[in-house]
Amino acid sequence: MPIHVDVVRVFTDERGHHGNPLGIVDATTVAAEDRQSVAAKLKYSETIFVELPTPGSEYARAQVFTHATELRFFAGHPTVGLSWWLHERGTPVRTLEVPAGSVATRRSGALTWVRAKPDWAPEFSLYPMNSVREVEAADPKKFGPGRHYLWAWTDRVEHSIRSRMFAPEVGTMEDEATGAAAVHITEHLRHALLIEQGRGSILHTTYDPAGWVEVGGLVRAEKSRVL
Taking the model in full, what pTM does it have? Predict the structure, then answer.
């Protein structure tokens, strides 16, 4: 049976450029044991399989897979992308139940937001750089195992930064937009941020001293696929 895959791009700029693509699949169309192979065929950094909510439901359950493994920790761009997609199809929810925990979600204007605790996300090595030029000139091939998040201030007053993320050991030489890393850098700096990552993706964050961080951004639909 053909598998329908909706595709969205998450954390775009205001023109709809850049951002990370996300495959979204109705979980009832793919058996649990086949979801990893479907994600591998799609070759997106993440694919999310969702149990579609009934009208009026306030939550939806989902699983996230990379091309190689299921993600058991918090992932920003899949949860933001799915929340936006559910809202657009007329079944908005307040919570996404994923293996990392109960991720609260909301819409504010054009932005879609999700909320998480930093310890739900994987660890990142944070590298403060002296300038944006230094961030942009960095060579991902010079970084070894782990997840490496390079950043520099673009405006300290406005709390905006320029960043890049390298994770060669998990098959991601460079990630275009990393919501989980945005959660960690926000906790580290203890302030809401405006983040430009990768080639020009835009992420927004809020900071709550009680231990919560929100990450949000713009999402746009792309052409769907059939496997």
Answer: 0.97
